[in-house]
Design goal:
single chain, alpha/beta, Rossmann fold, 8-stranded mixed β-sheet, S-adenosylmethionine-dependent methyltransferase activity, Methyltransf_11, Trans-aconitate methyltransferase, SAM-dependent_MTases_sf
Length: about 260
């Protein structure tokens, strides 16, 4: 995870976001992650993906901006070949050509500029290796950003405006075609982006609220406290009315061609 000015909390995120972890593991399985080799996990959260890859025989370098997430990932992976460091993805550093798999799920849309982290991840892919990205807000630039605009409109209502002045809605649109162009420019063969629908508990309002409190509205929850669910309910109602519920989640898989013999 990576978000400016907000400290992600590992335990509520872990408890509420199993659907996103399962989506990440499913994407990696479909992409054909090998057994053995080196794996980079950017925005590792509380370490579930890092753990799973280490148990496949991979040596994992994981990073996250949140101290809480880093501590949780280190505890989860303490007996495994996993190194976890605290690092802001905006200043990401990875060994060029050093990884058989580079992975990042549900992180990119928290960054205002995707260029440096995506370029760094692309350059870290070894010949014959692969890059797997999952993130939200990947719709075309011309389609606008109704979800973000609707959330910001609710946050600007009199009941919330002053309280949320220090916790604005920060989510950024990175069209999949723009990300794919950058990856191709770095020498990767990019598969068409595919839509992803992680299970966030949409059929269970209490579970959905918990998921949103721990992820999408984590910064706002720190400010609103017991009023967070009321704010979430207003947001959901507004999103339904605006027809803006689609988060435009995608999975992008890219491969670096193997070296010619």
């Amino acid at each position: 995870m990576s978000r400016t000015g907000h400290e992600w909390r590992a335990e509520p995120y872990r408890a509420a976001n199993t659907g996103q972890v399962h989506a990440a593991l499913k994407a990696l399985a479909r992409a054909g992650v090998p057994r053995g080799g080196r794996f980079a996990d950017v925005g590792c959260g509380s370490g579930e993906v890092a753990e799973a890859m280490a148990r496949r025989g991979m040596t994992v370098d994981a990073s996250d901006v949140s101290e809480s997430m880093v501590e949780a990932a280190r505890a989860r992976c303490a007996a495994l070949p996993v190194t976890v460091e605290q690092r802001d993805a905006r200043r990401l550093a990875l060994e060029p050509g050093g990884y058989d798999v580079v992975h990042s799920s549900w992180m990119l849309h928290w960054l205002e500029d995707f260029t440096h982290p995506v370029r760094t991840m692309a350059r870290a892919v070894a010949p014959g290796g692969l890059l797997v990205l999952q993130y939200s807000a990947a719709q075309a630039r011309a389609d606008g950003f109704a979800l973000r605009d609707t959330l910001r409109a609710v946050a600007d209502r009199p009941a919330w405006r002053e309280r949320l002045r220090e916790a604005p809605i920060l989510i950024y649109q990175h069209p999949a075609d723009e990300v794919s162009v950058l990856l191709a420019a770095e020498g990767l063969a990019v598969s068409p982006a595919e839509p992803v629908a992680p299970d966030l508990g949409a059929g269970d309002l209490d579970r959905l609220r918990a998921t949103l409190r721990a992820a999408t509205f984590a910064a706002q929850a720190e400010v609103l406290g017991d009023d967070t669910d009321a704010f979430i309910d207003e947001c959901l109602t507004a999103l339904v009315a605006a027809g803006a519920l689609d988060a435009h989640n995608v999975c992008v898989v890219a491969r670096r061609p193997p070296l010619s013999v």
